[in-house]
Amino acid sequence: MFIPLDFYRILGIPPQSGEETIEQAHQDRLLQLPRREFSDAAVNVRNQLLAIAYETLRDPEKRLAYDREWWGVEDMALGEALPLATPQLECSPEQKIGALLILLDLGEYELVLKYGEPTLHEPVPPGGGTAQDYLLSVILAHWELSRERWQQQQYEFAATASLKALARLQQDNSFPELEEEIRQELYRLRPYRILELLARQGQGEAQRQQGLALLQAMIEDRGGIEGKGEDYSGLGNDDFLKFIHQLRCYLTVAEQNALFLPESQRPSLVASYLVVHSLMAEGVKEQQPIAIVEAKSLIAQLENCQDLALEKAICELLLGQTETVLAAIDQGEPKIATSLESKLAAGEDPLTAFYTFTEQWLEEEITPYFSDLSPAVLSLKAYFNNPSVQEYLEQLEPDSLTTDHSFAPDTLPSTATESQTPMVHSSAAFPDRPLAPTAPPRRSRSSRRSRETISSDSDNSPGFSTTTLAPAIAYDSDSLSSNGMGGERPSNGFTVNSSLGSAVPEHKPQRRRKKRVTIKPVRFGIFLLCLAAIVGGTAALVISRTGSPLATLAEDPLDVSLNQASEFIPDDATGRTLILSQPIFSQQVGQLVVQNWLDGKKLAFGPDHDFAALDGVLAPNLLAQQRVRAQQDKAQQRYRQYEHKLEILSYQVDPKNPNQATVTARVEEISQPFSLSNQQANGSATRDDLTVRYQLVRHQGIWKITQIQVVTNHS
To answer: Left, alpha or beta for 255 (phi > 0: left; psi -120 to 50: alpha)?
Structure first.
């Protein structure tokens, strides 16, 4: 069979290369071993093909004959010979596995699949390698294609390729470590897939539902939005909260309700706060005051741990409770006073000023964070002019809205600590107060609404009341069951019970009944007309974000976007390994590789002579050299202490081989020799200020140093 390869590409050099380049390239290619899972027979066949290419090109006569066969004579204008035809490498069946390994080395993953996948269907694989060698070559080709697509910001294509690799692995359980590596990479890819599926224009409903399912699976793996569970994405608690905040503008009102309502019952302070906003958005958008009642009830439960006076006052306004709004303004609540300061100072009517402020608050604080909202959709005028809204508000009693505990389940205590609940408090969002358990009103799947019915059970003792809400939202989450990792996940509870209600504690003092406040349609229409004349000339109001659990997140957003490859920095050893295994080389990777070498050098040449510290840092050729040096020091009963200062000056990825890179760094090193026998200094310390060039290679999935060269000594 013929494979589109030539001897120059096999060695990874251009046709103009000289003898020294050919010699060095051959040595480098021998050192760049395939993954350890390949059999020795397959590696030997690969090395034989490298030897054939090397022997041909190092011999001037053989090279000339080879060049004339495929390239003809040199083009004087271009200074090089042009191929007469696509060079082909003739392979015997026994050499096929070696050619596939070379194609893998060269990044020709499509060719590996083209020539390797048909072999998997043959009853007996060609000689030279085992059936597992051919399977492994195909799996690695899919995986590396996934990494290429990742680098190109094609995240769903990347995930598809990795899932194909996993599917092959699950047919044969011979490579458990490789399967775990690919699965871990899929987990790190998941935030980018979610963002692509939810944010990119033109996505179909199926893709959107898949994005929501991935997000839900990610939250479940973490044990909630503020959970301590491991989702293997590399995102810490604060970063995940920023990621959630970043996603909000791509989610609809209904999607946020369906996502955050169940989460608020874990309990979760962030989810509860987000539900307040989504319920308020739903109430105004759908012109359904019952959603505002639910938001207000949830606010009452959050007041012990968060200042939500402004949101509460806005809910009161949306429910027509004008006396309560005026009382809040008169009491001088800080957030409300700050918001209305300029208006009130200008002598405007407090209620009119607050109405105008509410319109702007909805436009600035609610509309931008929902994909299906706009100022025209979220209209207070349309909300209050709706006859059904007016009818609902007229039937509201002021006392019926004081439902501080009416939605709290009987099983939840009145206070909670971190040890009692699965919640994790984010230091970025909520630095000072613990969370009291919250349980928002539960909703059935029915999309029909009815007015709130308020009743008193005759069997209850005085002071007990029950509030029942009609179903408020419909959302079918049956399709959101897959975790996107190649396995099925049971439904996590998007569907919740619709039965509501619990008694107010018996010792709670009975509230003084206030005068019933209603807004007649005619009277309210006049009120709106008065406001309309004012709104046109209203100057922009400054809305204070003080106290908002999302303020910190908005100021410091997570650096995750569709046009940027992933770059996570976990704080543990596993996290560092994940960075070093990234397919995309970056300055972060280069910095970590060189720093690991300097740290490993201290251990290998220190008093304990810990040679193993270099295993994951240096490629085999350089590792062997440094081991010899360290062993010599140990044999001579001496060791060294180092101090280093590192600055990365530049890095460059080989354009022809993305698995090779060069890092140039400024290294200041102080080296002090010691005697191992008496722990005394053995000679004076040396101080070097060096510019060093590090040649890096991606060896067995990890970036390692293969060559170190001192470029300049500034000492």
So the answer is: alpha
Phi, psi torsion values for 652, nearest 5 degrees: -150, 135
Angle at 551 between CA 549 and CA 555, to 5 degrees: 145
At position 214, the amino acid (one-letter code) is L
Q: Give whole-number Cα distances, 109 to 22, 112, 433, 509, in Å.
A: 24, 5, 54, 74
Mean predicted confidence (pLDDT) in 177-188: 91
Structural contact between residues 262 and 493, judged by C-beta atoms closer than 8 angstroms: yes
425-473 pLDDT per residue, tens: 333 333 333 333 333 333 433 333 333 332 333 333 333 232 222 222 2
**pLDDT at 416 > cutoff 50:** no
Task: Tell me the pairing of strands 74-75 and 89-90.
Answer: unpaired
The whole-number pLDDT of residue 432 equals: 34
Domains and CATH numbers, the chain: 2-151 (1.10.287.110), 251-474+502-548 (no CATH), 585-713 (3.10.450.240)
d(C-alpha 146, C-alpha 424), whole Å: 34
CA torsion through residues 410, 415, 420, 423, sign:
positive
**Secondary structure of 426-456 in the HEC alphabet?**
CCCCCCCCCCCCCCCCCCCCCCCCCCCEEEC
What tokens appear for 404 in the block?
């501080």
CA distance 600 to 278: 52
pLDDT top residue among 58 and 415: 58
Model-wide pTM > 0.85? no
CA 156 to CA 198: how far, in whole Å? Answer: 12
The β-bridge relationship of strands 702-713 and 686-699 is antiparallel
